[in-house]
Amino acid sequence: MSKDPTPAKHRLLTGILHGDATEVVKALRDGADPSASFRVGGEAGGVPLLGMIWAASNGDEPTVRALLSFGADPFARDAYGDSAGHVAAKMGRANCLETLLEFGWDWREIGQQGLNARELAERHHYFDCLRAIDEREASANEKKAMEAEIQENPADKRAVSKRL
Length: 164
What we know:
By secondary structure, the protein is mainly α. The chain has one domain: Alpha Horseshoe (Serine Threonine Protein Phosphatase 5, Tetratricopeptide repeat). Helix content is 57%, strand content 5%. The chain contains nine helices and two strands, in the order ααββααααααα. A two-stranded antiparallel sheet has the order 1-2. A hairpin with a 6-residue loop joins β1 and β2 (47-50). α3 (51-57) packs antiparallel against α4, α6 (94-102) packs parallel to α8 (127-152) and α8 (127-152) runs antiparallel to α9 (157-163). The longest helix is centred in the last third of the chain and has 26 residues, at 127-152.
């Protein structure tokens, strides 16, 4: 099987633009940078846009997951100061927001409008996004409480670890 001669970055960005996660993964395996950006509005005067932000804005969770799995920075921001998490929250893309949270993105980060993801989701009435943030926060708090319990009672470590 011969390798596709089209440069990996070009195939990556084409896959992102078309919502083709399979093509995105192939391009990433061929060495494309998961944090690659492209210009919207043409190379000369366009605005740089990160591929993950494009995917999140379109609710393309498989592509967001692929980019993150290959090392894209969940905290990367566009030229306006928003990350993929901010864009997902203000566009109601709960599936992408959940994935970004899973990969360590912090919803408390302040975006371009001076708001965090919770505030953006509230402003736009995206209750699925609010639920995703609340569930992630509850899970993190439960894990911290269990870890504290292990520190206090090392003999009970096995019982508590099973709940983690």
